[in-house]
Amino acid sequence: MLIKRREFLKISSLASASLLVPNFLKSMALDNALEPNRKILIVLQFTGGNDGLNTIIPVKNDIYFRERSSIAIKDPLQLDDETGINPALSYFKELFDSGELSVMNNVGYPNPDKSHFRSMDIWHSASKSDEYLETGWIGRFLDEECYRCDHPTQALEVDDMLSLALKGENNKAFAFKDPKRLYQTSQEKYFKSLYDHHHDDETVSYLYQTLGSTINNAGYIFEKSRSKKTTQAYPDSQLGKDFKTVASLIKSDINTQVYYLSVGSFDTHVNQNDRQKKLFSDINEAVKSFVEDMKSTALFNNILLITFSEFGRRVAQNASNGTDHGTANQMFFISGGLKKKGILNALPDLQNLNEGDLIYSEDFRKVYATILKNWLQADTSKVLGWKNGVYDFI
Length: 394
Hints:
Blueprint: H1 5-15, E1 40-47, E2 56-58, H2 62-67, E3 77-78, E4 83-85, H3 90-97, E5 101-108, H4 116-125, H5 137-145, E6 155-158, E7 174-176, H6 179-186, H7 189-196, H8 205-227, H9 238-251, E8 258-264, H10 272-296, E9 303-309, E10 329-335, E11 342-343, E12 362-363, H11 364-375, H12 380-383
Parallel strand pairs: 1-8, 1-9, 5-11, 5-12, 6-7, 6-8
Antiparallel strand pairs: 2-4, 3-4, 5-10, 9-10
Helix pairs in contact: 1-8, 6-8, 7-8, 8-9, 9-10
Pfam family, one: DUF1501
Organism: Chryseobacterium populi
Protein name: Twin-arginine translocation pathway signal
């Protein structure tokens, strides 16, 4: 059977949902669910470089208000004597007050890069700023933990394309936007027939194998997503829909331990406050629905939701009531199983800057190492090559 260019492109489109390698071509007949009380990690990426100083606000710092005369947040929700949070994140304030949210300030890495693409690659791969890796930190976790994976769905990304963070050398996560739509596409007669009639000696054999794996995985994910549909009301935003999908899968007996989502864009060079307020409102409502959903089924203690952005913004506002690319930023940690709550470290030092940018104090790779070791029970030296200790907030 010869394949035409148009057919090749159709297969490629469907196969890109998984980007799986041939050794993932397995039967989906057996179902190995997560062990009881197994920890689940959810990563929420703030794409575009969120402005951390207008997220967690240094309410008593005169430099902050002087350098941001037009865009400083003047009505934050108070977290403690020195710190406030953007009022659009009101539910995060509730979680903080109940001991279910922690904040780590000033997270970054040495020799920061202000390119969206390069800095995101660094965060995804957990590399040094002058090191280029083709695998991600979660992907390498999958490589090390593959003996636990009878299904190639231990990590899922709710997106059309798979991020570098979830690509390992031998194992990769599975990416999809909507379980039903992916399943319906995979069941189209054209794709099923094409896969059933391919020959092993064709030059596109790898692509056919990926197609077959996608068809099997699509059915497995769709089955799990509807097996225990959530009754919780979620907002109609894209992020709300994504969290609802994750909630339904968590409630099922799917074997997924890591979920990856993203929201943006936070690239707020112009009129920052309006854009950030809209994004934060979407995040706030989606996270509120998800957390309440997980609490209603006693799952929240075994779930850790973390947020990050590829960089923060400069301390001073620009002439367009926005902020330009900066360096360090904060990370949020939301869970019913936190060991340390609240503000985990000092606010950024606005008196000690590097040409107008924050100087990081916490290495993001140490945060990853903490999550891998204390939450996912993985070997940090094998996954990250990290031997510099971990934090104790989880």
